[in-house]
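The freezer alarm interrupted the setup, so I double-checked each line after restarting. Inputs confirmed:
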Amino acid sequence: MSDTLSPEIRFGSNSGQPATRRDGLAKVTGVATFAADNTPEGLLHAVYAPAKIARGRVSHLDVAAAEAHPGVTHVITPQNRPELQGDPSGKPTMFSFRTEVLQDDTVRYAGQPIALVLGETLEAATEGARLLAPQYEVDPVRVALDDNTARGFDPGGFGLPGGASHGDVEAGHAVAARSIDVSYETAAQYHNAMETHAIVAQWDGDRLMLDMPSQALKVSCAGFAYFFGIPPENVTLRSPYIGGGFGSKAIPTGPQVLAILAARMTQRPVKLMFTRQQMFGPAGHRGATRQRLRLGVDENAALTVIDHEGLAETSTFDDFVEPAANASHDLYAAGALRASHRLVRLDVGTPGPMRAPGEASGSAALECAMDEMAEAAGMDPLEFRLHNYAETQPGTGRPYSSKALRECYAEGAARFGWEGRPLEPRQMRDADGLMTGWGMGTALFPCPMFAAEARATLRPDGTALFETSAVDMGQGAWTVLAQIAADSLGLTLDQVEFRAGHSALPDGGVAGGSAHTATAGGALHAAGGDVLRQLGELATADPQSPLYGAGNSSLVARHGWLLLEEDESRRERFADILARAGKTEMIGTGHGGRAPEAAGRHAMNSHGAVFAEVKVDPDLRQVRVTRLVGAFAAGRIINPRLTESQLMGGMIWGTSFALHEAARHDRRSGRIVNADFAGYHVPVNADVSGLEVITVHEDDPYVNALGIKGVGEIGIVGTVGAIGNAIWHATGKRVRHFPIRIADLLAP
Amino acid sequence: MKQFDYVQPKTMDEALASWEPGASWLGGGTNLVDLMKLGVAQPQRVIDLTRISDLGEITFQQNGSVRIGAMVSNADLARHAGFAQHFPMVAEALLSGASGQLRNMATVAGNLMQRTRCAYFQEETAACNRRTPGAGCDARDSDEEARALLGASPACVATNPSDFCVPLAALEAQVEVRGVNGTRQIPIAEFHLLPGDHPERETALEQGELIVALHLSAEAARFARHARYLKVRDRTSFAFATTAAAAALQMEDGIIVEGRLALGAVAARPWRVAEAEALLVGQAPDAALFARVAEAAMAGAEAPVHLEWKIDLARRTAARALAMAAAGTPARLPALPASPFGQQNGDLAHV
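Predicted 3D structure, all chains:
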């Protein structure tokens, strides 16, 4: 039998291929077990009662009625809640919020847990929670941005963003030949992953087993360990499949802590799953913002200043300020720039990171303001952006690690057919008489990296096992990370077993900041490389190996063989190298992350350009986005199919931001009145037509070893502004808040 | 949710016999079950009508009228070729409602019994006279957008959210109901009650009465060539109407012989104004005429300042629906039924 290698196999041949999801079949056939699919023996169901007012205190709970309901086993209130070992106001990890866990009877926001009911069935616990019929002492609520005093804060840490400043901002204003001073508002939005937050908690002595969707397994374990006074390694967290996270599943919530507490108290497994309505409560949200943008240009339409002030809501008891103004940091070459933030405390739950935190809401305002500035300067919006293109990072002059934004503009504009767009609004009608408008926006998302570890185990048959506690929220990590892992050893995808989503594995880091593929992927790649290094050292030092005497650096791996690069007839199978050395396996470890010195040398961002066409009924003012073209440069694309899916999902979210999503509060109680999918709208299929994604080639030798920038969030960025600008172009109406609705466009 | 008895009668007689005060009839459950989960509906007994065999028929009579069984699903009725041909705007309204999954479950009688979507009705802890007589109305001074512009009372500002009922009102459907005392027919115009001092009385059904069928007359089919439903909303599909209108015309030699116009989402029942319809008679279709008719149809409308735009939008919706009807019923239902963007998606749209 011939040992000839298949010629089409190249090193790195998995990366770049549109592999379908490895977990797809399990998901569509229902075999995949999500957290709440676990039903251990003896399970109790937990349901929490949410406050229906936003500010005051709970004056009465009808505990007796709840306890009397058949099937209810326990009612936990602030009066009888067992003690927690960690202070719920403490911040044990990098991603921690002060947690509402029944520490007192104060109500700080509507939807806050005020009691936990346990029952033998979900129905019993649910009815028990309803029977509590809470009564309140109600204080006046503050739920709108003007309801409380805006104030500054000292930046620092998670949730309190610093700003940026360079150049002489006042001079930038003073020298401007033309300027605009506009204010934009964005609505509060709530993460609504298809899978709501859930947990199944089981204690075994002082060891805790959790099934829970988590974007940050090790961080979550550390947080729970803190609350319950046990070592983090005593917490096992399984999170193999997650039905969407969007930032809300990085941080453990109060009800999940309470479920663990209930399991310890009852010594039985406890399951808790949020209802859809409960998703508008203790699981974070994107805080509403008001952003003032003052832009100026000189006689030549060069930006003299970008002055971006963000005001964002946060809760009365913790800080998460939507870092909207930071969207202006790195994008345009302005003579002077200032990005600053203030907060206003409202009777709402603490906001949190929600897909593209800051970038989404900041870009919505910035990109519309850029269009207003372009209009004032009498320029085409794209031409104006190109005219103010930043060749180096504004303020620092640092080079970009790579920046194919110019190519994004060019390819996106060509595909969309931007050329010939009338400068003035209200110029285009389609064959049906619908007002038609075109708008565009630039997208930028930074390329942070967290830290991750991975382990590779080469097996005697030449296949390999890769392990890291990485997270697949639905974005495709099971597939993409396995592609990277396979490439690191020159194996095909089916020669690699990939394990993730379990806290006992090497720390896979956090699935956030669009950094997971780069970070966990980097760790996997390094782990595979570590195995190759060891294999090479064995082979090249072994006189019986065809590779004897070759330098380790001249070896390549392909299809289970180690080969000499310049003479591929000198090669040896992984399995044979292992066997002759008497080894049953070989283990390599790898780390993913970015060295601080590398971070300092370059500015690192993904970029994109989004072009939108909208149609507006001239009488009824109903809006429809009929075309969206997004061109993105995001470094090395590991899997084009899943990348396209991520970017499309982001752009649809952008449509959602621009036209649909908004939590509406009752002004008296502070309750969110549209807290379900009948009232809180996201786009449906009929809202999405003509959606197109282009990925622009980009080699980035600096961002990380694999050249990966991340595609998880950038799709939203730019899209919101593009749609807002297209609506202006169609109607001549500049609506300075999102979402934009019929009512806004009807106004004279 | 609260515990309840659940019974599955096999015949109408069994069903009527199993009724008791505090019981609810269950059709597709697409509204009732949600309200039970919210604690807004708390029936002691749920009487499931799905096992009664003779409620699911669509029957055309010799004279061209049609009888639609109470348990016919919205999807089956909308997709019934003969029905859609004779009553196209009813089919269009049905297909503009909810989603495919819900239309498969929802029944025509259930649609007539659909409760308001007012956020304050749907929240157990909010004051609502409709849910708890005498409790007050938290919606009245709120920002609620699903608010009646016409026919509201100090006690209640709720709207009827149905699409289906709007063309039924325009076509003067009859509701066949049965109780222990026998069968009777209720004109659709008298079926839904305006709130007045008793918003808790939502329909003309007596205690224990059950909808058996709907009837559309042969006369109603005479509008088939000029009949449209138009539904305006911020989301293209799967959303209740912001405003809606069903417009139907009989035309002879370019002149309107008879016109019908019913507005949706503006009152606790579909809104028809005879004076407005009368303006159409003997006229040629014309934008100015339709604007006058729309104005007359919305006569007396009131809204708080933040919703004044809705009166304007309702007028525009009515005028456009009339213009669409005048232009003629399309040979086949648009890809996006009842949408201002109706023709845009080609043959297939996911609504």
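Quick read of the result. The radius of gyration of chain A is 27 Å.
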